[in-house]
């Protein structure tokens, strides 16, 4: 009898070990399998940019660049033959547009209309396009993308940044899925913009995400050095954009990411602060922030540990994905509990729909607007009953943000080309139009 039990146990252990080794093999293969990849850009700073591409053969590639499409007079040649290319162009001028072409003998590269811009110290106006959970290639993804192109009249010059809110390649963020879901369908954007992306839970199923991108760890693109690719800031014009990994990093208040976040927000001097992270603190869509166990407890941790930091530094906007719908709050402060604890009197700073006023200086408890936009390629059946998120739609779409030194205008552009939700935050001392002022403006001083 003892022998039989022993044999069964050994058999079970062998099954578990074989399964574990098999899974590890699959995950490693998916994460690091070599795929050809057209050139794309990472590590945009005020004076440099890095071009990456993957060619079928090991070879020395070269990049030509210059101020004019017919005058790319500068050339950089790689020193060694590789198939995974990474070439940094340095000594560029700040806030300047360059044209470039990439040449790699074994590869047919689409060099039509390739350009990039360096980050800006100041800007009169900036436009961002943000997509969430965009990683399902197909008709819906294409339609959402095409509505953005229509909105900007196919004028890429009117766009300054492109931001991805995570789950950028379904189903598991493999190298092959990234080619299918991002590099191929958005190829015209990839030629012109750095895809600034945060990791989603589906991306985190493999290790390709941090292999595909290089992110600034030394404050190269702005903000305080983070010493981690998982969290960093980008200073561009009027914006301080904070990119967080809500999926694989420590989300504890005293953990390294949140400790860095507090220091980074304290040091920031830009007028607009936007935090981007995949998992939201509030949602009642495909995911529920009232369920402590939803998404492994990440939504709860983010609400309890990050919201107080957003309040402390008066973060203007927190944008997430994860639920495949659109949800948006008013200007909020101090709501770290479940939806039943939401108290409009206590947690709404300005009870208006379309217009909010904030001080230009960083001000504690001046309020934060929370947006979920996880419907750029997928849609969930959703209840959308969270009392803190009154402007919510079971609709596919993307976000357009227009930013000036004193105004931030957000629009949810649907798959049908409609603006289903929009609001403006003003920091120019002018009041909102009277029709928007449902209650007097007030700041919730003293709320802990
Ligand atoms: Fe997700």
List keywords for this structure.
binds fe (ii) ion, Purple Acid Phosphatase, chain A, domain 2, 448 residues, Immunoglobulin-like, 8 helices, alpha/beta, single chain, 3 domains
Tell me which CATH architecture of the largest domain applies here. Answer: 4-Layer Sandwich
This entry's quaternary arrangement is single chain
Total helical elements: 8
The shape, in one word, is globular
Folded structure, characterized:
With 448 residues, the protein is α/β, with parallel strands linked by helices. It folds into 3 domains: 32 residues; 81 residues, Immunoglobulin-like, CATH 2.60.40.10; 311 residues, Purple Acid Phosphatase, chain A, domain 2 (4-Layer Sandwich). Helix content is 21%, strand content 26%. The strands form 5 sheets. The chain has a 7-stranded mixed beta sheet, covered by helices on one side. Strands 11-12-13-14-19-15 form a 6-stranded mixed beta sheet, with helices on one face. Strands 4-3-6-7 form a 4-stranded antiparallel beta sheet, with no helix packed on it. A hairpin with a 4-residue loop joins strand 21 and strand 22. The chain is globular, with a radius of gyration of 23 Å. The N and C termini lie far apart (64 Å).
Provide a short characterization of the protein structure.
It is built from 8 helices and 22 strands. The protein has 448 residues and is α/β, with parallel strands linked by helices. The protein binds fe (ii) ion.
